[in-house]
Amino acid sequence: MEDRPSATALLKTSLPDLKLLSQGKVRDIYATSDPASLLFVATDRISAYDVILNNGIPTKGQLLTSLSLFWFKKLAHIIPNHLITADVTEMPLEVQKYANQLEGRTMLVKKAEVVQIEAIVRGYITGSAWSEYKKTQTVHGIPMPAGLVESQKLPEPIFTPSTKAAQGAHDENISPEQGPSTLSLTHRLSLDDFIYFCLPAAARLLGQDLYDQIASTALQLYKSAAQYAETRGVILADTKFEFGLLSPSPSNPEKRELILVDEVLTPDSSRYWPLEGYTPGKSQPSFDKQYVRDWLVASGFRKGLESGPEGKEGQGWTIDESVVQGTRARYQEAVDLLTK
């Protein structure tokens, strides 16, 4: 087994006796000898604008995992989650042999069918929501009150789902409110077809019952987490949840249980701001990867240059060391504030 210096970012796992099923922007997912479970490994890779950067953030995987474990436990009263164990000694024997590589950054989880939307909840107007509001006075197609300013708290949190794009592609918003923008009047539709086309786009994708369950659960999760975070001096501006469906049980073959999967409420999937000094009307300092996004844009990143800086296309983007250390410090501070 291999020891890694703490200052070295783990960009790629090497578990040759396990079958690698997928490699995402951050996580590597492996099969195990248990057909009902999967091994999730959080690497130190970091992405911004759906681009994986050349270098990672040392110990980021452990920080993400520790915060996910904290929130899984804290929010278990709202919805079950996919966690089986994060203790490597309780995992299958073929996993335990890689303990030095995996310790603190891995979870054995229940195998589930991932629901193909990202369940985004926004409590404050910022980022792409603020950009849209300035143009149309809407967020995700939802009409909003006049006179909002950047970073202002919304009257109520809103559910703004998006598609789950393949790696390297961009997620696309799905309006939770609007049906299709156009429908040819020459089409002769049955009543069932007409009702289907008039459903909100996200509900058409999932089915109304599942959509309603996910929207309601995501809002409950956000409200509970945001309320707690505020007691720790942290604002949870927005976040992304992912859900899965377990296979039906023999006792109830008609029902598939909805569970919370992937990571939850980490700085990779959420915007966290310090409560102290919060001032609506401007962008806020953050504990999340907005710091990396800002550096990337300042370094010349734009649409069309995903593969590298201008004149160096194909070489990728390498984060400055000062930004690596600054990002790690922000992630560590968020974990400490929320969990200690």
UniProtKB/TrEMBL annotation:
SUPFAM superfamilies: SAICAR synthase-like. It is an enzyme of class 6 (ligase). One of its GO terms (biological process) is 'de novo' IMP biosynthetic process. GO terms for molecular function: ATP binding; phosphoribosylaminoimidazolesuccinocarboxamide synthase activity. Residues 21-298 form the SAICAR synthetase/ADE2 N-terminal domain. Its EC number is 6.3.2.6. Transmembrane segments: none annotated. The keyword Ligase applies. Keywords: ATP-binding, Ligase, Nucleotide-binding, Purine biosynthesis. GO terms for cellular component: cytoplasm. Pathway: Purine metabolism; IMP biosynthesis via de novo pathway; 5-amino-1-(5-phospho-D-ribosyl)imidazole-4-carboxamide from 5-amino-1-(5-phospho-D-ribosyl)imidazole-4-carboxylate: step 1/2. It holds the Pfam family SAICAR_synt. HAMAP family: SAICAR_synth (MF_00137). This is Phosphoribosylaminoimidazole-succinocarboxamide synthase. It comes from Leucocoprinus birnbaumii. The lineage of its organism: Eukaryota, Fungi, Dikarya, Basidiomycota, Agaricomycotina.
